[in-house]
Structures are given as C-alpha cells and as structure tokens.
Amino acid sequence: MTLRRKLPITRHQLLAGIASASLLVVASCGSGSKSTSSTTKAPSTPASTSSTTVPVASMDELAATPPMGWNSWNQVRCYDLNEDVVKSAADAIVRHGLDKLGYSYVVVDDCWQEPERAEDGSLQPNKERFPSGLKSLADYVHDKGLKFGLYLSPGSETCAMQWDEYPGTGLGSFGHERQDAEMLRDIGVDYLKYDWCAADETDGLVPQEAFAHMRDELERLERPIVYSISEYGKHQPWTWAPGIAHMWRTTSDIAPSWGSISHIINSQAEHYKYSGPGAWNDPDMLQVGNGELTDDEVRAHIGMWAMLAAPLMIGTDLDKVSPSVLEALSNPDVIAVDQDPLGQQARRVSLDNGAQVWVRELEGGDLAVALLNSTDAETKIATTLEELDAESGPWKIRDLWTQSDEEPIGAEMTEPSDSVISRKVPPHAMVMLRLSR
Ligand code: GLA
C-alpha cells in the first residue's frame, strides 16, 4: 500500500504542496526544527522534494471520499466492548441497508487488548471480550461485505489506560510499530485508528514523526489500509497531515450534547483550505442516537458533518436506534453532499450571533448551503447569491432534509430580493439546501 500522494494532481496542487511541505517537516523534526505554524495558508507551489519524499501513488484512491462506517467508542466506550457488540453492529448496518449508502468500515476502538503483550511482543485480543479472536471477527465483518478497522496508539499507552483505568502495560505501539502493523495485515485490517494519547509526555514522541513512522510501516504491508490519525487538533495537523494520513482529528473528543457539537462546528470554519480527496479533516465521530439530542440537533449534526466533508462514523447502537435517527443517517441527499467527489469542504460566509451560513461547492457547479441556527431561539437566517459567490440564476433549490424541491431563485435578478434565500430556522437546527442550475 502507498499512502503518499500522487503528483501531479492538478486539481489538488494546493494539497500536494502541503503534503510535500509536511514530508520535509517530518524530515527536519529530528534535527530540532519546529513544525509548521498554525494558521498559515498552504504554500501555493509544492516545496521541492527528494526522490525519497516525492509522493508517488494512490492515497487519493483509497479514501477518495470521506470514510463512512461505525466505531465502537461512542456506543460502548471501554468496558462494554466485546465481539458480540461488533458483530451486531455489522449485522445492523447490513439489515438497515446502511452499507448500500456507503457505511462500510466497522472499527473496533480502544479496550480490545489483553493487559500484557505476549512473550514475542505481540498484542493479544482480550480473551474475555474477544474469545474468538480478531481474525475471526474480521472474517465475520468481511463476509458481510464490510471492512474491518482497529485501534492502536503510537506511544506506550493507549488513551483508555490513561483515562479509563484500563489495566495493562505497553499496549501502545511504541517500539513495536512494525510488529503491530504486520498484525493488522495478518488479521485483515482495512482501517487503522492511530490515537496519540499524550505520546509526547509518555514517550517523548513528535506527532509528525510518529504518525509518519506508522505510515511507512503500513506502506510496507502492501495492503490498502485507511489511516486515521488523532492528536485532537493540538498541533494543527491540517497543516502537515495531508500526505501522512487519510484523515486527522481536528478537535478534542465529541460529547453527545448540542454544546459539544456546536463548539466543534464553530472551530472548523477555517479548515476548508486543507482537506480534499484522500486527506480529510475529522471533527470526530457522530454522536447521533446518544444522549438527549433532539431530532433537529441530530439533523444539524449529520448535515454539518456532511458540509464539512467529514468522515461519517456512526457510534450508536443500531439495534436500538430510533426511526428518526436512522432516517437522518440514511438521507441519500445529505450523504451525497458528504461524499461529493470534488471533496471541497464548506466555508462559513456569515456568522451573526449563532445564525450561520455555510456554503460547499459541489462537483458540476452545484452548491450545498447550510442555514444553521446554533442559538436557543428560532431565528430568521438569510443569505444571497452574491454572498454565496454564486452566479446569477436561475438556481433550482432542493431542501435536503425535507427532500422537497422549492421555488427556483435568481431568474430575474431585477430586484435585490430576487437573489435572497431566507428561512426561519428552529433552535439548534439547520436548513440544508442544494442549489443547482
Ligand atoms: C481518545 C479518542 C477517542 C477514543 C478513546 C479511546 O479519547 O479521542 O475517540 O478512541 O481515546 O480510549
């Protein structure tokens, strides 16, 4: 497998520039150089590269659109994880037809390990939780036509050892990178979540180096493995992770509350410059179905993740999910925005006391528009074709949550109001529109 980016990619030269620059940063980190600065714009031309750092092949092809699937963490966290939970999730994905909509990865998060490595240094699945072993579980998932994912950490500890008092020693991959990567291949893993867990403090690691190290080990395997990294956005990964990983977390952990979801959305407004096919900002996994989220909040959560071209990883019990949550997760128009081949993440064009307008350019010239109300009161939110950078109309309008077509706008453009889109939006809700010619 090769994770490095193919050059030239005309449409994504900007990202290729970041990728090349990031590889140079990786190379210079060991000599004490500082990493890239936080909010600088990507270089407009790729930095020069040596033959060993030139991105050469198919990163884009493996995660050409944001990965979709299910991950155990938001559903069961640490102590309720076992093979039955994972099998049930795989069964439910297929039973609900979510696989046909693109949800394909079934990912086992932290707390799958025995507390100690075996004598040969290999990680072992927890015998009580995974009595049949991980190979058998991966086979089960594959037999359903789905793909299998697993969690590792670059330091010597996983996050559950740090935060959930999960017993164990040396469960991180530090010093075992090759062995653990080969284990992924032998199990039949298709997706790795590689989670930082303060590896700088525990082991003195540098994120760019540690994540690139595992990328190199994955490349050796010649098995396509989606590489998802996580350091919670602490070191501005959007500036260096393209070319290292397919997706990188941009935030600390999401909670099943509107406060957490809305906080994350607000922190994403500038990240659109950095993501694209094969390289995605990851504002963390979905919490729909968990906590006390209302139907409006559920739709706003999924809809904004789609606007952000975010990976869509379900984290709830699909055997118990409510019809409205399932319907929201299954909305084909919203998924089509998330999975749009252009891979252009939305930008925010206005923010007025929590009333927000976001626009995402789609392949073929369509636009996805979000009118998001993150306030506690119903609010009228308006935008114009000019504000959306859209040419004059007419534009057809489809409401993606009600799945209904609305009156076109911009046909005449004789009155200023001809270009206005205005809706009353309930609290903690979004109106999501697709504009097309
Ligand atoms: C961190 C990650 C979570 C999850 C846990 C597992 O908190 O951000 O997504 O993987 O670790 O311990």
Walk me through this protein's architecture.
- With 437 residues, the protein is α/β, with parallel strands linked by helices.
- It has two domains: 272 residues, Aldolase class I (TIM Barrel, Alpha-Beta Barrel), CATH 3.20.20; 90 residues, Golgi alpha-mannosidase II (Immunoglobulin-like, Sandwich), CATH 2.60.40.
- 27% of the residues lie in helices and 19% in strands.
- The chain is built from 13 helices and 16 strands.
- Strands 7-6-5-4-3-2-1-8 form an eight-stranded parallel β-sheet. A six-stranded antiparallel β-sheet has the order 9-10-11-16-13-14, covered by helices on one side. The protein has a two-stranded antiparallel sheet with strand order 12-15.
- The two termini are 40 Å apart.
- Bound molecules: alpha-D-galactopyranose.
- The site of alpha-D-galactopyranose has 9 residues, from helix 6.
- Alpha-D-galactopyranose binds next to helix 6.
The total strand number stands at 16
Would you tell me the structural class of the helices and strands? alpha/beta
Q: What would you say the CATH architecture of the largest domain is?
A: Alpha-Beta Barrel
Largest sheet: 8 strands, parallel
- What radius of gyration results from the CA coordinates? 22 Å
What global shape is seen?
Answer: elongated
Query: Going by CATH, what is the homologous superfamily of the largest domain?
Result: Aldolase class I
* Stretches with pLDDT under 50, minimum 5 residues: 4-57
Could you tell me the CATH topology label of the largest domain: TIM Barrel
Task: Figure out the total of helices.
Answer: 13
Order of helices and strands: HHEHHEHEHHEHHEEHEHEHHEEEEEEEE
- The level-1 CATH class of the largest domain: Alpha Beta
Give the rounded overall mean pLDDT. 88
Distance between the amino and carboxyl termini: 40 Å
Q: Give the amount of beta strand, in percent.
A: 15-25%
Helix content: 25-40%
Number of domains: 2
Ligand kinds:
alpha-D-galactopyranose
Please state how the strands of the largest beta sheet are arranged side by side: 7-6-5-4-3-2-1-8
